[in-house]
Amino acid sequence: MAKTSDMSHKELVQTVLKSPVHFLAFGFGSGLAPKAPGTLGTLMAVPLYLLLVQLPLVYYVLALLVATVLGVWLCGESARLLGVHDHGGIVWDEFVGFWLTMLMAPAGWLWIVVGFALFRLFDIWKPWPIRIIDQKVDSGLGIMLDDILAGVYALVVLQVLAAFIG
Fold first, then answer.
1. First to last CA, the chain
2. CA–CA distance from 103 to each of 16, 36, 155 (Å)?
3. CA distance 45 to 109
4. In this structure, what are the phi and psi dihedrals at residue 138, rounded to the nearest 5 degrees?
5. Are 96 and 152 in contact (CB under 8 A)?
6. What stretch of H or E contains 71?
7. How far is residue 71's CA from residue 25's CA, in Å, rounded to a whole number?
8. Which of 7, 40, 98, 100 is the Cys-Cys partner for 151 at CB 3.0 to 4.6 Å?
9. Mean pLDDT of 4-33
10. Crossing angle for the helix pair 92-101 and 139-165, nearest 10 degrees?
11. What pTM, to 2 d.p., does this model score?
12. Nearest-angstrom CA–CA distance, 35 and 102
């Protein structure tokens, strides 16, 4: 398979839509956005979160763990097939990071918006040690781990805000 740097956007779209691995890793196609694929991928995670949040907490956590383990493989395999370390369109990690952010979040759209904003802030900013992990850890684990840590940072801030604002 040609490296993504050698592919046109149209060829990338065709590649992603033909492969279940790429289709899932690219967030059901949301990662194909030419601008801000991570933000669009996170936005695509919201309706799925609205389904997940209906589950009892133990099943939500179990689904999160399954999505994480699956994501390590999906993201790594998609990157390997595309011949890149972490293609910007691979957004399964954004799904998991957002779902982690929203773990035990208060109900309501305000909290979804705040969680979304906090996750994107930490994912883009990459405070210590997220940036180091993003640069140094290869494979699907590296792709997933920086977003998991961004999700943990956002989760902590969201829970602190919820405790004070209510």
1. 51
2. 30, 24, 7
3. 14
4. -90, 175
5. no
6. helix 57-82
7. 7
8. 100
9. 91
10. 30
11. 0.94
12. 25
Question: How many C-beta atoms surround the C-beta of residue 15 within 10 A?
Answer: 20
**What would the mean pLDDT of 140-144 be, rounded to a whole number?**
96
pLDDT band at 134 (very low <50, low <70, confident <90, very high): confident
Phi, psi for 64 (deg, rounded to 5)? -65, -40
Number of neighbouring beta carbons within 10 Å of residue 94:
28
Name the residue with tokens 């890793």. Answer: 25
Query: Can you tell me the distance from the alpha carbon of 69 to that of 58, in angstroms, rounded to the nearest whole number?
Result: 17
Reply yes or no: is the peptide bond before residue 127 cis, omega within 30 of 0.
no
- The pLDDT of residue 2 is above 60: no
Mean pLDDT of 62-89: 96
The full set of domain ranges for the chain reads 4-165
**Nearest Cα to Cα of residue 71 among 99, 112, 36, 104:** 99
Mean pLDDT of 138-155: 97
- Phi and psi at residue 126, to the nearest 5°: 55, 60
Contact by Cβ (8 Å): 63, 52: yes
Reading the block at residue 125, the tokens are 């900013």
Identity of the amino acid at 154: A
